[in-house]
């Protein structure tokens, strides 16, 4: 029996080579030519967390994707101790393959502190109960895809996703950039608050870039029309989370142009607490038809 969540936890259990040097692997079975961006974000955050006192949680990270990751070779993560202060700790993580940077990230960690509080309300959207899972929607259309894609397209996932305003993946129509998904780790996990942050960081790279596709009636399946990739990723973590429970990802895209799309997200737990905010710019390059 497959256990995608167990595989994900193993993926995030990176190997320590030296005090501030770590090695991460990529999944063996994925039919992909590049490493999923969320994997590199999460493994980098794990590496940073392993050099930070346990009483400090990450409150923000800012990252750049520099080169495509090669899933066939390990990724080396180098952690720099930028600052160790009384309340805040800062780390810089560089991910290297084939002797070159593929990714870098700055992350800041803070001790717990009381202060004034406010937040925006969670959008009023249908709950996850009764919504089809992304896998169920994929199974419905899998016969329209090339046979070589079908197993990967419909496999069990480590993150369960239920879209509130799904598009037709094969024949999308232009729609609002504002959309919402419910998501969570696919089964309960007994892990630390730090690792729950890393799991959320992993999943935060899912669906966000599609916000800037929606007004133009395109999806990632339309390889003949679109070249896309994440360029950067910023995340603000507003407190501890429990990511094996449902969370709402509310997303929009205020701008697209010059071959780039800018996307924003707010992540709420099911009680309505805003637990994270996300921003990302991605490459959204229109491909010209071949003569």
Automatic annotation (TrEMBL):
GO terms for biological process: acyl-CoA metabolic process; fatty acid catabolic process. Its EC number is 3.1.2.20. Residues 33-110 form the Acyl-CoA thioesterase-like N-terminal HotDog domain. It holds the Pfam family 4HBT_3. It comes from the Bacteria. InterPro entries: Acyl-CoA_hotdog, Acyl_CoA_thio, HotDog_dom_sf, TesB_ACOT8-like_N, TesB_C. GO terms for molecular function: fatty acyl-CoA hydrolase activity. Keywords: Hydrolase, Lipid metabolism. GO terms for cellular component: cytosol. Residues 150-283 form the Acyl-CoA thioesterase 2 C-terminal domain. It catalyses: a fatty acyl-CoA + H2O = a fatty acid + CoA + H(+). SUPFAM superfamilies: Thioesterase/thiol ester dehydrase-isomerase. Belongs to the C/M/P thioester hydrolase family. PANTHER family: ACYL-COA THIOESTERASE, ACYL-COENZYME A THIOESTERASE 8. Homotetramer. This is Acyl-CoA thioesterase 2.
